Structures are given as structure tokens and as C-alpha cells.
Amino acid sequence: MNATRWYGLVVTLIAAIAVAWPLTRHPVAGDSFPLSTYPMFATRRKDARLYLEYVIATGPAGARRHVPPELVASPEVMQAIVSVHAAVARGDAAGLCQRVAARLAPRGGYRGFDEVQVIAGNHRAIAWFVRGERGTERTLARCPIVRGAR
């Protein structure tokens, strides 16, 4: 074999080892820069919890609907979440409740709802998102949806 072939063989072996090397690492303990296994998404968490404050509209017979972000504070979901959390943190859950109720009053899609609630929820994340099972909830504020004369 000539020198060029030896050089090609060595470079190919080094490249193959470098590509296969991450397979030898433990998926969680070996998580590091620059190669990440993203263990927060790759490992099973039996009791992942979701703590969140949110706004719902309620009606007769236990009807409830989560108020969309644009009627809470902003069309951007994360901005709405932060706005709800900030209102609760500064003790303005009642004010937020009244502002949202005023926005819902003229909406036809909310005619069957008569109250707005600001809720602090503690849910098992998978059960909440996949099966819709609620955990514990605490009502921080509630206010009526006041509509004008018909």
C-alpha cells in the first residue's frame, strides 16, 4: 500500500470512531456540551408537575373553557402566561379577572358562560395534557361576566 492509501485509511478510521463515539456515552450522565442527549426530553419522569395560574370562563352545570391568550393579555401564549403570573404576584388577580370578564362580555362564543375565574393549578403534567385530568386547583379571583341589556 502506498502512503496515500494509508493516509486515507487512517483518516477514515478516525472519522468512523469520532462518529460512533457518542454511542458509548450514558444518555443522562454523559450529557454535556457540545453533544447533548437532551435528557429533559429523553428520560421518563413519573411525576412531572405543572404549576400554573390561568383564566377560565365558567357556566351552568360545571361548564368551563380556558380563555384564549388574546382575551387575557396578548395573542402570544407566553406573554399571556407571564401577564397572569405577574398579576397574581402583585395581588391583582381580581383586577385581571374583571378586565377579562369585560373582554368576554360582547363575545358570542361565551354567551353560555357567566363567570370568570383566575385559577392556580397544580396538575400531573402528562395526565393534564394527554387525558385532561385536573389536579388540585385554587380559585384566586372570581367575577361575573356582565352583559348589557338585550
What does this structure look like?
The chain has 150 residues and is of the alpha+beta class. It has 6 helices and 4 strands, in the order H-H-E-E-H-H-H-E-H-E. 16% of the residues are buried.
Secondary structure layout:
Layout: H1 3-20, H2 39-42, E1 49-58, E2 64-66, H3 69-72, H4 77-89, H5 93-104, E3 115-124, H6 125-131, E4 136-144
Antiparallel strand pairs: 1-2, 1-3, 3-4
Key traits:
four-stranded antiparallel sheet; 6 helices; 150 residues; alpha+beta
- Into which percent range does the helicity of residues fall? 25-40%
Strand order of the largest sheet: 2-1-3-4
Order of helices and strands: HHEEHHHEHE
Reported for the largest beta sheet, the result is: 4 strands, antiparallel
Note the total helix count: 6
Shape: elongated
User: What is the arithmetic mean of pLDDT?
Assistant: 85
Q: Unreliable segments (pLDDT under 50, ≥5 consecutive)? A: none
Termini separation (Å)?
95 Å
Q: Could you tell me the number of beta strands? A: 4
Please tell me the total number of domains. 2
Brief summary:
By secondary structure, this protein is of the alpha+beta class. The protein has helices at 3-20, 39-42, 69-72, 77-89, 93-104, 125-131; strands at residues 49-58, 64-66, 115-124, 136-144.
